[in-house]
């Protein structure tokens, strides 16, 4: 039982073909098979949000998704959001507002916020906090993260 | 924190999924959104030998009007339930309830039917399925059957689903326009599982409450309707005396458990406080709806 299954996925625009055990979590696939260690693994049961990625443009917990399930689908991770030389827009806002301290939760926040900016009304702090509520920062730096999102939301304007 | 090894079947049709469950000899498990199943598999509390993925089965991702009922397919995600205009038109109460379901990322994946199958006693979807006289559509090698919500939800994390059966959708009552509703939930954090929640709907006709429905969750082994409380409100002008009587009845009917989040007595008190607010809100809306 549980022989390997061939999958083909696109991660940050690049195509990968791999053979995986059905039980391999998408988070482990990204980190161990593809070497993309930007996606962090916290609780491994869907509570902390550190492993959040985008699956076909919508945020998803990579620890609650199996690699074999995403055959043919598109994944985006924090590595696709910017480089050390050229940070992405959300990353820049985090730097400007001191949105990270230890940085462990940051990749998950970046990906959740990317989803929020595309799909969610962010007109009030209440809406921003509600949309962020599935990600945990144990440095408890939430106020700075909210400040960063507020700026990004203002820049975006009302949801189209 | 990793699942045990299992075989994986990506079903392309309901028939294929049911066949895979049947040949697994009771060791199979269906995965849709996976937001409840995957944590249990990661903890190895659930160890299927075959995982049947239904995410690619066409046609299950729709909310459809079928006569007087709404049919919610097995792949309808919480995000869709929370924003669907058909639900907004027929069941504004469900939209209000969905705002309390989990968090953005979980709502992208988790499904209405999957939550009912998981049968957590403090989850919203089982409660709403009971409130709306849900019929759970179940496919198996023996064909299709429809199980009433009260017969489907047996206990905490326990349903009437047989090992070779899968849920294809759930049919819900629509409520007449102008139906009043109220919903209150208390959780440690917004989006977390509730310590207690109460929902009620009623129509306002001739100055009285009609077709009253009341359901609770988080205060017993499963979400439940409360017929005695419904009877205490039915046909009444819902003034403060009537509300007090209904709240007393509710506190007597529920059997909450104690856990680290709260004692049974605390939960009984809390449910009563929430219920009074819910009955007031539903009555107010019913009168506005009746006048409209």
Can you describe this structure?
- The complex is a heterodimer of chains A (160) and B (292).
- Chain A is of the alpha+beta class and 160 residues long.
- Chain A has two domains: 5-80, Ubiquitin-like (UB roll) (Roll), CATH 3.10.20.30; 89-156, Orthogonal Bundle (DNA polymerase, domain 1), CATH 1.10.150.120.
- Chain A is 33% helix and 16% strand.
- Chain A contains five helices and five strands, in the order E-E-H-E-E-E-H-H-H-H.
- Chain A has helices at 26-33, 89-96, 106-119, 125-132, 142-156; strands at residues 5-11, 14-20, 52-55, 58-61, 74-76.
- In chain A, strand 1 (5-11) and strand 2 (14-20) form a beta hairpin.
- The model of chain A has no long low-confidence stretch (mean pLDDT 96).
- Chain B has three domains: 7-53, Uridine Diphospho-n-acetylenolpyruvylglucosamine Reductase, domain 2; 63-173, Uridine Diphospho-n-acetylenolpyruvylglucosamine Reductase, domain 3 (2-Layer Sandwich); 180-291, CO dehydrogenase flavoprotein, C-terminal domain (Enolase-like, domain 1, 2-Layer Sandwich), CATH 3.30.390.50.
- Chain B contains twelve helices and 14 strands.
- Chain B is globular, with a radius of gyration of 19 Å.
- In chain B, 53% of the residues are buried.
- The A-B interface holds A 1-2, 5, 21-23, 25, 28, 44-46, 49, 52, 58-61, 63-66, 68-69, 71, 112, 115-116, 120, 130-131, 133-135 and B 1-8, 10, 31, 34-35, 38-39, 42-43, 49, 51, 53, 55, 79, 102-106, 108-109, 189-191.
């Amino acid at each position: 039982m549980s022989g390997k299954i061939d999958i083909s996925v696109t991660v940050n625009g690049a195509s990968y073909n791999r053979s995986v055990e059905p039980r391999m979590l998408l988070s482990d696939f990204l980190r161990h098979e593809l070497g993309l260690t930007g996606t962090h693994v916290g609780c491994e049961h869907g509570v902390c949000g550190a492993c959040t990625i985008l699956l076909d443009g919508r945020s998803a917990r990579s620890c609650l998704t199996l690699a074999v399930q995403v055959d043919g689908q598109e994944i985006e991770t924090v590595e696709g959001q910017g480089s050390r030389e050229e940070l992405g827009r959300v990353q820049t806002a985090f730097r400007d507002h001191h949105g990270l301290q230890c940085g462990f939760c940051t990749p998950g926040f970046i990906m959740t916020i990317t989803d929020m900016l595309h799909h969610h009304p962010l007109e009030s702090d209440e809406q921003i906090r509600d949309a962020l509520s599935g990600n945990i920062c144990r440095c408890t730096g939430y106020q700075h993260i909210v400040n960063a999102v507020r700026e990004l939301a203002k820049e975006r304007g009302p949801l189209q | 924190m990793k699942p045990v090894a299992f075989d994986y079947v990506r079903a392309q049709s309901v028939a294929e999924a049911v066949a895979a469950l049947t040949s697994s000899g009771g060791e199979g498990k269906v995965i849709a959104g996976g937001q409840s199943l995957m944590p249990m598999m990661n903890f190895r509390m659930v160890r299927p030998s075959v995982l049947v993925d239904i995410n690619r089965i066409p046609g299950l991702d729709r909310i459809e009007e079928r006569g007087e009922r709404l049919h919610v397919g097995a792949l309808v995600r919480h995000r869709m339930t929370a924003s669907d205009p058909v639900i907004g038109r027929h069941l504004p109460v469900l939209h209000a309830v969905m705002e309390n379901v989990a968090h953005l990322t979980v709502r992208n994946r988790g499904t209405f039917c999957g939550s009912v199958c998981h049968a957590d006693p403090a989850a919203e979807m089982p409660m709403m399925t009971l409130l709306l006289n849900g019929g759970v559509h179940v496919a198996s090698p023996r064909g299709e059957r429809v199980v009433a919500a009260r017969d489907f939800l047996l206990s905490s994390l326990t349903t009437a689903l047989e090992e070779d059966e899968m849920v294809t959708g759930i049919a819900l009552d629509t409520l007449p326009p102008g139906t009043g509703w109220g919903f209150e939930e208390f959780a440690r954090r917004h989006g977390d599982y509730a310590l207690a929640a109460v929902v009620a709907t009623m129509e306002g006709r001739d100055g009285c409450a009609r077709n009253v429905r009341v359901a609770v969750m988080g205060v017993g082994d499963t979400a439940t309707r409360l017929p005695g409380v419904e009877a205490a409100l039915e046909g009444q002008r819902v003034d403060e005396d009537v509300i007090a009587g209904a709240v007393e009845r509710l506190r007597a009917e529920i059997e909450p458990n104690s856990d680290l989040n709260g004692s049974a007595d605390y939960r009984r008190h809390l449910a009563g406080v929430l219920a009074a607010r819910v009955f007031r809100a539903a009555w107010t809306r019913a009168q506005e709806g009746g006048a409209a």
